[in-house]
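TICKET: design request
STATUS: open
ATTACHED STRUCTURE:
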């Protein structure tokens, strides 16, 4: 049946995300992936997908593109400037993305490539081919005497009793 499409569109992919925060994260992921494809290949993500569909070594190239994207996310890009705020008057340059966020972005782009591109991406091969950085764990520091005093001064008597017992 030619009138039923084989794959979804970008909007259908985003509409399939019912939770508001999940949808927002998927939109951010697609925005970052779009910035990457524009700066590296001078094409939109949809054009990259259509070019990959015509290639016979599709999966290898997908893993290569995703690995380049993760490497791109690790770096600051001062040439990319966005404007934020209610009146779009706050200037912000693109800074490196935290490794935990990169992992979430990768999961959304993988889902996007599977839903919109119709590609079958193997998790094991993806993990092997695309290197995600590990987040550095921060050592917790104990509160100083002054910080503890400020904390206790702002607590109610009931909370103080809970903390001391």
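STATUS: resolved
RESOLUTION: sequence designed for all positions
ATTACHED SEQUENCE:
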């Amino acid at each position: 049946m030619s009138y039923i499409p084989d794959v979804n569109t970008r909007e259908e992919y985003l509409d399939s995300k019912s939770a508001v925060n999940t949808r927002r994260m998927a939109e951010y992921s697609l925005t970052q992936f779009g910035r990457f494809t524009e700066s590296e290949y001078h094409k939109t993500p949809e054009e990259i997908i259509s070019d990959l569909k015509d290639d016979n070594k599709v999966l290898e190239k997908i893993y290569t593109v995703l690995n380049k994207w993760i490497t791109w996310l690790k770096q600051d890009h001062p040439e990319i400037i966005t404007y934020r705020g209610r009146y779009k008057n706050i200037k912000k340059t693109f800074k490196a993305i935290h490794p935990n966020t990169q992992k979430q972005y990768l999961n959304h782009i993988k889902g996007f490539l599977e839903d919109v591109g119709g590609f079958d991406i193997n998790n094991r091969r993806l993990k092997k081919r695309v290197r995600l950085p590990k987040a550095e764990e921060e050592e917790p520091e104990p509160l100083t005497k002054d910080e503890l005093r400020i904390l206790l001064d702002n607590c109610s008597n009931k909370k103080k009793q809970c903390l001391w017992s």
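CLOSING REMARK: The two ends are 71 Å apart (CA to CA). The mean pLDDT is 90.
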